[in-house]
Specification:
Layout: E1 13-17, E2 23-27, E3 33-36, H1 39-53, H2 63-71
Antiparallel strand pairs: 1-2, 2-3
Amino acid sequence: MASATRNDRTEGVEFYYESDGSVTAKDLETGLARGGETRAEALAQLAEVLELHEGGGEPIDDPDEFLRDEFDLEADDLADVDEDDRPEFMQ
């Protein structure tokens, strides 16, 4: 990964260009990052993550139903996943 950071900035967005051609956008203030096939896609993904990080989005009332409807997964499918590695809403 190559970095575009200059002058020890602590605000803004930094882009990383991966060897597979994808791009990662990292928010320097929060340290959160998301990737995509293009800079625009990476920024859109990062914007969504930042919104959720700031408390945006809708709460998940039933995690099992969410997994089923959104990802076609059953909670039991994740039984082998260490609890510390699970998303916060499942802990």
